[in-house]
Amino acid sequence: MLIAALSLMLAAAVLAPLAAGRLGRRTGYPLAAVFLITAGALLVGAPEVMAGGVVEVSLPWVPELGVELTLRLNGLALLFAMLVLGVGALIMSYAPQYLSEDYEHARLYGILTLFAAGMLGLVLAGDVVLLLVMWELTTLCSFLLVGGRGTDGARPATQALVVTGAGGLALLGAVVLLAVGTGSTDVATILATAPQALSARELTIVGALVVLAAFTKSAQLPFHFWLPGAMVAITPVSAYLHAATLVKGGIYLLLLFSPLFAENPVWHLTLMAVGLTTMLFGAFQALLQHDLKALLAYSTVSQLGFMVALVGVGTAASLAAATLLVAAHALFKATLFMLVGIIDHEAGSRDIRRIGGLWRAMPVTAGLTALAAMSMAGIPPLVGFVAKEEAFYAFLGTSQATWTADTAVSGALAAGLAVVGAALTFAYSARIIVGAFAGPLVQTNLYEPKAAFLAPAAVPAILGLVLGLVPFVLNGIVDRAVVDTGFTATEAGLALWHGFSAALGLSATAIGLGILIHLRRNRPAILAEAVAPAMLGPILFDRAWSALLGFGARVGRGAHALTTAPHLGGILVVLLGLAGAGALTISDLAPMRPGTAQPADWVVLAVLLPAVLALARAGDGMAALVLAGTVGLVIAAWLMVLGAPDVALTLLLVEVLTVVVAAPVLARLPDRRGDRTGRRALVGSGLAGLLAGAVVLVMTGRRERSAAAEYYLAEALPATGGSNVVNTILVDFRGLDTLGEIVVLAAAALGLLSVAGRRAASGWQPGRAGTLGAGELLVLRVGALVVLPLTAAAALVLFLRGHDQPGGGFIAGLLAGSALAVARMSGIEVRLPSVPVLVSTGLLLALAAAGIGLVWGGSLLEPIKVSLPLVGEVSTSLLFDLGVVVVVVGLVQAALANLAGDSGRAGPPAAAAPLAARTAVPARSGPPAVTEVAP
Amino acid sequence: MSGVDWSTLVPLPVVLALAGAGVAVVVTGRIRLQRVVSVVTLSLVLAVSLALLVGADRSGPLTVAVGGWPAQMGIVLVVDRLAALMLVVSATVTLGVLLYAIGQGAASTDEEQADEDAPLPIFHPTMLVLSAGVSNTFITGDLFNLYVGFEILLASSFVLLTLGGSAPRIRAGISYVVVSLLASVIFLSAIALVYAATGTVNMAQLAERLDALPDGTRLVLQVMLLVGFAVKAAVFPVFGWLPDSYPTAPAPVTAVFAGLLTKVGVYSILRTQTLLFPGGQLAELLLWAALATMIVGILGAVAQDDIKRMLSFTLVSHIGYMIFGAAVGTVAGISSAVFYVAHHITVQTTLFLVIGLIERYGGSTSLTRLGGLAKVAPVLAVLFFLPAMNLAGIPPFSGFLGKVGLIQAGAQQATWLTYLLIAGSVLTSLLTLYAISRVWSRAFWQAPPPEAGEPGRVPRGMTLPAAGLVAVGLSLTFLAGPLFGITDRAARDMLARDPYIDAVLPAGAP
User: Which of A38, B236, B362, B491 yields a CA-CA distance of 20 to 30 A from A561?
Assistant: First the structure.
């Protein structure tokens, strides 16, 4: 039944926009009916609740986090649910009259109904996570409803979202602490076990977080300012969310969790102090407003403070008064908002200085307004009076609360402050009535609105009167609610007439004082000064907020560097700091194995060191390229000496090709010989080098040959048929790595084409940077014609023997690529398939070899040996290696094409003599204008 | 293993994507065919990934020794629950992005959206290569092969970042590639040192051998790997490159980068910190890094004027959440971090796609040039609002659930540092909400500025995939129960280490 009720509301929220497409603004009527049906469904459970039972239902949601969808209906929930649905139904039947034909009905009704569902879920939630979900849902709906009016609404909506959102996060913190502490997310379990399961300190933190959440939602000082701001919303929204229901969410939360803090004086004193202060502040502010809606907003702030203070008193009587006040306030404040909306609608203004004498034109409206305002002012026989009497009575009895045992708290002082608040309330209530309705009529052509418009406002106004006359009908529900907040059943004994009591005296005092204030209402300046300090809240909020945003802007700028260097510096610093610190802790090293260093190493170092230093200081790209190439060649030679000819050959070829490809590119870049590597960069990279050297020293050469190495040496020939262990690792044992690497090469080739092609299209004319004399070209050509076939043959040989002797796919591909480079430089056209065809063919060949292994061998990349006629036994790893060759050639081709500026399709090869060209470009920015300078 | 040998499927996410890429390059001339190839390929990858998730969840880690060599001699591929989940999520968003890009390309007529007019239509094959690289990092059980996966990612992402070759993209690409190469160098050096110190790069074997190393040596290796991965994951203080390079790329590219690339770094951190370096030696350091990442990232976000840059900063910020979970290092922490990764991949990708739609409608991604979109494009408003609120962690969305899990995990540890982290994550949430609501009120509510032109037309082909991903993001909320079930089991296995090690090296292996 509870699930049905909530589902019905959610379904209505989904269907409302659809219905609005047909019904337009009249969608409100069927929605009002849905609200009433939902209320009826809940009332089915009312007898059980009134008998002291609880209706509960639960579905699993995220059992791993212990989160369930538990809905629970008790007295407190029932009271709030009835308010949500009842006031909701009234608002829904008010809206069709209020809205214009061309309003965004679908949006409004959808979100408003969703809000109602969220509010209903909030009060029914029996699981703290679900509670949180619903809490935030109402916050979001409020944001959307306030901001929906376009530009004016955006700022207040955001402000409200930030303030109440912060509260929601505080609630999240409280929920998590409770859930972790008690091991449950069930509200009832938490309430029962938290005082034992959590330490006093933890409980206080939870209390602070709950208070923060409640204060933001219920607009208590200093978070109150979002509520008056939210008044930019349309009247149905203000009446429903920001008077009757949403802002009561905080009160509900305080009531719900108050059993946890029954003995905690800090909790109670905080609530009382903040509540009463807010009450007085809000009432002062209300008195200063000219806009009726703003007046009502501050009045709401004030009344919410009143309720918070009552919850803070923490006696059965005070909680009874608080729940009654919640109900009474919902009735009179919703009425007042709706009526102010009507006045605005009819008279075109809600400024108290521009309207007046409406009594003469709209007597029914005026009468209803007066009725509601009198309830707010606490005048008998209205329900507001009953609630206020109960409240005074409760304040006077503060000292009966158990938490006051060690605290000197004065109930009389609290009651006195409440009386002042009530007097101010009386005064601003009087201001509404006198300001809007008394005096001469200032406008003409004013008429009473039609009954359908007035009826939704009339119902709660009259209900306020009826309940004031027979308040005892509320005894049952108020009792249940008080029991649900942790008290044993007491008889609330609500009555209009309690006899001549102290509370009655206070009521009379409040009214008398209120009349006095009303008579002196034209001296608002004194009041303004009195409340000035309280305006600090919004000012501080704005200041802190803009300071935060300013800081954020600085952070944002820092990361927008436009150059790469700052990013690298950070990484190096972190690496040096952390790894350096780690390296200092290294101890217990295994001894270095003999023979890891050779005399020849010193020679290598002697050559490398100056080259590296010069490289670091080189300000000129071309010089750096040459030096980097030199370093590479030295290392290649070193590797050869160490006995790694495959690696050495590969490195050698890569260095050569790098120079061939990069030099022409560098030649076209602006001359930056003036730029020197900065000192910090030098120090940083120097330290990084030292660190690298240190860790290499301590980590390498201190263990036996690894199991994998032994295995490769022993098993390569028998298992793969190849005796070149390096090559068998590449194509057999770790073929997947090689596959990955050729994919990298293929992607790089495609990328080169993409970038180069666009450059060509945009008029960038690369490639023909140098000019060669005819004689030089002839020499090159003749030489190339001799060299090319030889190189091609060498590549073929290296490829075929690769499995057994130094060579293999990478080396063969690189060599073939070098040949292509030579051909291109000497203007010889070598017809090859296009780059995309090359890389895809290579990739697919390698994948085919991998797939054959999977299909015939049962494992991806497993080498399969086939006996072919004439050739003999061939392994699929040869096919794989062929794929490597083709992709490598494709990449070199793409790189050369990039230089030539064509996009890899057929085109005339460019005659490029890269090293001969020297480019000087005056300007640093913009597409470089290429100036050719012959050497 | 009951009947079905799931492990046959293990290499397929990589192999299929690569084969698809090869074919897609062959058919570059025929755009339509190329699209069919890539969509079919990624759909197959997704199907395989789902099967792997089922398999891994039923029968524990699935392993394949590539080439049939003994485990520690060749390369082993391992799909456990963590890897399988990552595969499914990444395949899903990649497919979504691809469909979106197709929708964009099909409707691309104007000069501005010229990505498909590039000299060669290489977007599709490169996306497939990227997908293969991402999958490779998830399924590999070999540290060096993980590096190869990173290289594939790097090469393909560089190509995608510079698509079209405009000057800002080339500049961003250079920043990106240089930073990534530095990270790769660090990573590669770390691998070399790991091999030097232990004689293996097989991760299961490393898990056993690293334990035997002296503390200081192990710490240096751990730190070096961590720094390498942290750069990829954009963790404070090595995150600056990300907001500097991502926003310039075309929308689908930024979307897939934002969703996946940083998560590969996070995945690697999760994997190595649990499997190779258990015991949480660096937990405190990671917690501080997580805190700083969250706060600095989100502060960067709140001040941005450009939505893409703003989202790039929130991306950084939310990486902090995942590091938080990883640093807490309990089952709850790891589980929530994994959950958050899955959530964040989906949501962040979706948001960038939606920003692409906004760019189409409003002609800009600058908040000062947008306005009034709620009126002219209500569907777009919904498509933005839902994932945006999900990102901000508003209940009941998955972002909220992930955050609850993380905060619970932090509260269970109950040290003052984890409480500080909780406070930081809550503050981050609030500021995320603010940043998002700022976009919302400026771009959707505020009246459009006078210089704004007529709203552009957005093809349904772009809207539908974006809507599909929005729906996927929402479904995470409803599937949160089962999903947390998987991540819990994954976390338990990760922390226990034995299931992984035993699967790769059956008892008795050297």
Answer: B362
User: What pLDDT band is residue A789 in, cutting at 50, 70 and 90?
Assistant: confident
pTM of the model: 0.82
Closest CA of chain B from A751, distance in Å? 5
Give the list of residues 6+ apart from residue B336 with CB closer than 8 angstroms, or none. Answer: B325, B402, B405, B406, B408, B409, B487
Provide, as residue numbers in chain A, all residues whose Cβ is less than 8 Å from the Cβ of B18: 739, 743, 843, 847
- Residue A910 confidence (pLDDT) above 60: no
Number of domains in chain A: 3
Q: Which of B68, B285, B298 sits opposite A857 (nearest CB)?
A: B68
- Of B158, B197, B219, Cβ closest to residue A582: B219
Task: Give the other-Cβ count within 10 Å of A891's Cβ.
Answer: 28
Cβ pair A566:B240 closer than 8 A: yes
Q: Where are the alpha helices (DSSP H) in A701-734?
A: 707-720, 725-728
For residue A619, what is the enclosing H or E element? none
| Cα distance between residue A739 and residue A734, in whole Å | 9
Domain membership flag for residue A796: yes
ipTM of the complex: 0.90
Residue A228 token pair? 């008056």
**DSSP code string of A774-834:** HHHHHHHHHHHHHHHHHHHHHHHHHHHHTTTSS--HHHHHHHHHHHHHHHHHTT-------
At residue B150, the pLDDT reads 94
Token pair 């104007």 in the structure block, residue: B110
Maximum Cα–Cα distance for chain A, whole Å? 125
Number of domains forming the structure of chain B:
1
For B315-333, the DSSP string reads: HHHHHHHHHHHHHH-SHHH
Cis peptide before A381 (omega within 30 of 0): yes
Q: Which domain holds residue B467?
A: 279-498
* Integer angstrom CA distances of residue A203 from A174, A392, B227, B372: 9, 30, 40, 47
State which residues form the domain around A437.
262-521
CA neighbor of A540 nearest in space, from A311, A225, A134:
A225
Structure tokens at A428: 């601003």
Q: Find the residue in B nearest to A61 (Cα).
A: B481
- Residue closest to B244 by CA, chosen among B182, B300, B321, B299: B300
**Length of chain A in terms of residues written:** 935
Residue A353 resides in a domain:
yes
Nearest to B125 among A549, A587, A750 (CB): A750
To the nearest 10 degrees (0 to 180), the angle between helices A363-377 and A411-437 is 170
Residue (of A668, A693, A657, A672) closest to A624 by Cα position: A672
Residue B293 located in a structural domain: yes
A873, burial (CB in 10 Å: exposed 0-12, middle 13-18, buried 19+) = exposed
Q: In chain B, which residue's Cα lies nearest the Cα of A742?
A: B152
> In whole angstroms, what is the distance from residue A38 CA to residue A35 CA?
5
Whether A740 and A785 share a structural domain: yes
A531 and A413 in one domain? no
Contact between chains at A904 and B66 (C-beta distance less than 8 A): no
pLDDT at A625 over 80: yes
pLDDT of residue A764: 41
Q: How do residues B459-476 score in pLDDT, each as one tens digit? A: 788 888 888 989 998 888
Contact yes or no for B178 and A839 at CB 8 A: no
**CA-to-CA dists, residue B395 to A130, A134, B190, B389, B398, angstroms:** 9, 8, 42, 8, 8
Best probe of the B interface among A61, A62, A178, A852, by most B CBs < 10 A, is A62
Question: What residues of B are in contact with residue A553 (Cβ under 8 Å)?
Answer: 303
pLDDT of residue A730: 86
Task: Using CB atoms, pick whichever of B189, B240, B407 lies closest to residue A172.
Answer: B407
CA dihedral for B9, B15, B21, B23, sign (positive or negative): negative
Q: Which of A543, A558, A579 is the last residue of a domain?
A: A579
